[in-house]
């Protein structure tokens, strides 16, 4: 095995370690990431709802115009 393997393993193990002094900052960072994800989902749902509304409006307009043409007005 290469001689650098223990140092690489130690570096990987150290990335999962959070010092007690860093806990509040890490908690807030995780909160901000969660909030950003939630806001992104809300915006995506709103855009999808708006798109569905436009499709329904276009379908209703087509039906009304077809009825007007069929009535001969």
In this structure, how is the largest beta sheet organized?
none
**Run of helices and strands:** HH
Structural classification: mainly alpha
Which spans of ≥5 residues are poorly predicted at pLDDT below 50?
A: none
Q: Mind explaining what this structure looks like?
A:
This protein is an all-alpha fold and 73 residues long. The protein has a domain at 27-73. Helix content is 82%, strand content 0%. It is built from 2 helices and no strands. The longest helix has 49 residues, at 23-71. It starts with a helix and ends with a helix. The relative contact order is 0.05. The mean pLDDT is 84.
Features:
73 residues; mainly alpha; 2 helices; rod-shaped
Please give the structural blueprint.
Blueprint: H1 5-15, H2 23-71
Offer a concise description of the structure.
By secondary structure, the protein is mostly helical. 82% of the residues lie in helices and 0% in strands. The protein has a domain at 27-73.
């Amino acid at each position: 095995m290469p001689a650098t393997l223990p140092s690489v393993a130690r570096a990987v193990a150290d990335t999962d370690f959070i010092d007690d002094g860093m806990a509040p900052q890490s908690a807030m960072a995780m909160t901000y990431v969660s909030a950003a994800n939630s806001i992104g989902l809300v915006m995506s749902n709103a855009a999808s709802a708006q798109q569905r509304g436009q499709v329904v409006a276009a379908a209703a307009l087509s039906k009304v115009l077809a009825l007007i043409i069929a009535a001969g007005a």
